[in-house]
Known about the structure:
CATH superfamily of the largest domain: Queuine tRNA-ribosyltransferase-like
Strand order of the largest sheet: 11-10-6-5-4-15-14-13-12
Radius of gyration: 20 Å
Strand content: 15-25%
Number of strands: 17
Distance between the termini: 45 Å
Amino acid sequence: MYDFERAANSGRARAGVFTTPHGVVETPRFMPVGTVGTVKGVSPHELRATGAQMILANTYHLYLRPGAELVRELGGLHAFMRWDGPILTDSGGFQVFSLSNTRRIEEDGVLFRSHIDGTEHRFTPESVMEVQRTLGADVIMAFDECPPGGCSREEAISANETTSRWLDRCVRRFAELEATGAYPEQTLFPIVQGNVYEDLRRAHARSVLSAGEWDGVAIGGLSVGEEKPKMYAMLDVLHEELPEEKPRYLMGVGYPEDLLEAIGRGVDLFDCVAPTRNGRRGAAWTLSSGQINLKGRKFATDRAPLDPGCDCYACTHFDRAYIRHLTAAGERFGERLVSLHNLRFLLRLGEEARMHILADDYDAWAADWLARYRAARPEPIAP
């Protein structure tokens, strides 16, 4: 049921079709993040209208509430969320490891305290497989150790070794649960770590690829504080190591210029909370003006749409002056409109990238787009 067919290449950029039990995903494609079972402020039919084909939900948050078993009792994650397309769940590893003051890494797994009520919990590779299989997403992620940006070489080596040992345990438990026949069809993606060390990235990619037969591979541990040129350099390295016939998922990356830089280095799938997080702060992405802070007074009488070239609901129905009024007044509708725009902006960017890959002029188009976007200096995000 899982398949990846490459339709075209343009340089290193790839256009493909990833087939899952809940439908196909045309790549390259951004996946909106539904952290607790919803993309903040956006309904499923609105998501479809933005061009979303596959979305992400978060294991850590759904584990804490409402709990995986309750989700299963209510029909599984697709029925629970009322989303009939493909879903990916992350392992919860990034959230757990970001709780640096309230967690302890051990060989067996990670002991952590809930950010909600302070109760103590443990994630192991086995329990993370059990939670994700119970939730029922199409693609589930292996449990990994994600070291922070700027970590030492020794820390990166240790994280690679832990991630590899945990991957073996994830594979075994995934297979055991699959053998019961009690779960929907799912596939497991491994995660390549290595921080910003070229030799560690290469070594870990080879270790991961030798650990099983995968339907796709995730790239983790980037966009965690390192400088952007270092992230791009690691994608260059991994393009040489990862199989051409499998989709590549870059975790936690979703700013416009990063999307195009990564697509040009062979990445197929992306996720990030930035579109809706920025939307709630009144920050909108535009090609004409870069990133604009709608709380600025200069937009109070601006009758232009957020971005003149955008076909989203916000841009085709409202102007900057009205949306600026809503965001300045703290009205939720304003946050929703900017979130919808930012989601459509990224998803349309992926669609345009795919079109230019199919036309075999991706590199020239992306260079021109990035030059225009970077020339319009982004404004600071509103606090």
